[in-house]
Design a protein that fits this description.
This protein is of the alpha+beta class and 195 residues long. The chain has helices at 14-19, 147-155, 168-190, and strands at 4-5, 11-13, 28-38, 41-51, 57-66, 73-86, 92-97, 101-102, 105-106, 110-111, 113-117, 120-122, 129-130, 141-142, 145-146, 161-162, 165-166. Helix 2 (147-155) packs antiparallel against helix 3. The two termini are 37 Å apart.
Length: 195
């Protein structure tokens, strides 16, 4: 299965919900609608958050899922558990608990972002979601160093030498360039190329 891009996936973020006032102090239930717009296409989901009941905190999701290929519509209506961790200076931080199973085992990860995969929302590991930076590759990335990193380090240099010694930024650039060159040499040797 191909990986989805996190930046273009439908995501529910705890941090955004908190900013919108879904997690106030004390017992509370709040509901609303989250909408995503992708060009001319618009998607929405109805949510309600129940916190402070003393029994179980959860977020309730209600939406209609349309199968891309068949056009078949499914009414989705389920809860996702929430847990809290204490904050250093008081209060609590809320987290989703991933409700999905992968390879026949329950995930149950404590996460801050849920992604839509298929009909259900889950963590990025279960949904096979990756960030755009994870897709960088090909000619620009060799090992952990890429050409833009080296170019940025070069542009950050204001002065190469001070009192006859290389400056800290110049040394950083030289280290990155050397590391990238070594990576290119190893990659070339692996494939039988000579540079």
């Amino acid at each position: 299965m191909a990986r989805q891009h996190a930046e273009t996936s439908h995501a529910l973020k705890i941090f955004w919900l908190r900013k919108q006032g879904y997690f106030p102090q004390g017992y509370n239930m709040k509901w609303g609608t989250v909408t995503w717009t992708n060009g001319e296409h618009e998607s929405s989901i109805s949510i309600s958050v129940m916190v402070g009941s003393g029994i179980r905190d959860y977020i309730h999701l209600h939406y209609t899922h349309t199968n891309r290929w068949s056009g078949e519509k499914s009414d989705m209506d389920y809860n996702i558990n929430l847990v809290t961790t204490p904050c250093r200076y008081g209060g609590v931080r809320y987290w989703f608990i991933c409700p999905l199973t992968k390879n026949e085992s329950y995930c149950g990860r404590r996460i801050g972002v849920l992604y839509l995969c298929g009909k259900y929302y889950g963590c990025r590991h279960c949904c096979n979601v990756a960030y755009n930076s994870q897709f960088e590759g090909g000619n620009f990335r060799v090992g952990s160093i890429c050409e833009p990193d080296v170019e940025k380090a070069y542009k950050d240099i204001k002065r190469e030498y001070y009192n006859g010694k290389p400056t800290r930024r110049h040394k950083r650039y030289l280290r990155l360039r050397e590391k990238m060159n070594r990576s290119w040499m190893r990659a070339g040797a692996k494939f039988g190329m000579n540079f």
